[in-house]
Amino acid sequence: MTPEKRKARNRRLPPTTAPQPSDYDSDLPAISPPSNPFPPSTPRTNQQLNLSVIRRHLPTTVSILSIAPYAVIYTFSPAISQWEKSGIEGTLFTCVQTPDPSTGGERYSVVVLNRKGLNDFICPLEGEVDFEAGYIILRSKDEAGVDCVWGIWIFEEEEGSTRGMREENARIIRECAARVGQREDWGNGARRNEEDEQGTGGW
């Protein structure tokens, strides 16, 4: 007799239960947000921004005394006795510079960043400054060493934020030039006294 075949039994595996999503955040592992390696920088003021821009053109600038949003630079032509536009116009800055490295004296400059070209206006305040017919008149030498007379016309409104800006900037520029002039007069007097003492053999 052939042996009786046994029926194969179906072996059932225990059902696997998938994890149910939780409605509570506390059941999830705590995940800390990634640290920011670049903390946000402190926003700079308009004064700091202006100073950084000016230092690109005049690195010895320490601070800014006055600003005029719009100014036009003129040159005086002796041949026709008239003012002529120099092609420079833009924002005007009256700047304090580091002391003179040779004398230690104060230094100031007027800077106009040109909106119409690459040639900016940088004029050290060394001599007298006049204010006539709405022009701030400066005297200096150009790159070739030739004496030049410059006229600065500052735009201002009868009413608004620019009212009185022309006279205010003229006052500050004249005061800066006067301080430089006083220092130069004192230095010249000190040198003359030293020369006199050396000539007379001292006391």
If you had to describe this structure to a student in words, what would you say it looks like?
There is one protein chain. The protein is an alpha+beta fold and 203 residues long. The protein has 2 helices and 7 strands; from the N terminus they run αβββββββα. The protein has a 7-stranded antiparallel sheet. β5 (130-132) and β6 (135-141) form a beta hairpin. It is elongated and about 115 Å long. The termini are far apart. The mean pLDDT is 81.
Key words describing this protein structure:
203 residues, alpha+beta, 7 strands, 24% helix
- Rg (C-alpha, Å): 38 Å
Mean pLDDT: 81
Q: Which regions have little confidence, pLDDT < 50, spanning 5+ residues?
A: none
Outline, from the CA principal axes?
Answer: elongated
